[in-house]
Amino acid sequence: MKLRSSSSIEICILAGGLSHRMGCDKSRLRLGRRTMLGDIRAEAKKLDLPLRVIRRDIVPRCGPLGGVYTALKSTRTEAVMFLACDMPFITATLLRTVHRRFEGRDDALFVCLGRKPGFPFVLRRGALPTVTTQIEQEKFSLRHLARVLNAKTLIVPRWRPQLRNINTPEEWQTARRSLWRA
Fold this sequence. Notes:
By secondary structure, the chain is of the alpha/beta class. It is built from six helices and eight strands; from the N terminus they run E-E-E-H-E-H-E-H-E-E-H-H-E-H. The chain has helices at residues 36-45, 64-74, 92-102, 128-136, 142-148, 169-181, and strands spanning 9-14, 30-31, 34-35, 51-54, 79-84, 108-113, 116-124, 152-155. The strands form two sheets. A six-stranded mixed sheet has the order 4-1-5-7-6-8, sandwiched between helices. Strand 2 and strand 3 form a beta hairpin. The longest helix is centred in the C-terminal third of the chain and has 13 residues, at 169-181. 38% of the residues are buried. Residues 1-6 have low confidence and may be disordered.
């Protein structure tokens, strides 16, 4: 089931990181038939929302906030749902849940595992000044951003496996083995 297309929200997949721990571009690593970026892009497309991939941050070397800043600075929509290219197990079902929960009621919504806010998350374009300040103050953590924005949270313990990200060669090998077993 697709969500009705809307110009009020778009999806941005952040793929502009340096991948230091992995040692190569994570977005291009294959898990099964597709790359990690290809997997998450395919799931995101099922929502029938505008979709972009942010590969180059306007402000480099600030972690995901560089991509957040780039997306918010260049968006034409009222809000952006952010996804990370290293979370290939995300499903459209989870993304629909995040979208429905956000539905224009909140200024910021972060998915949380335990008490830690992270991807996916949705921000209104109006969060740009706060993101800019965070970058200027070199406070690059998403947890800090969520706190400063007084973000709402969505706790999704049953979707824990979907929130697994892949940052190291060991994590990538583990993910590949689990796919082969499936």
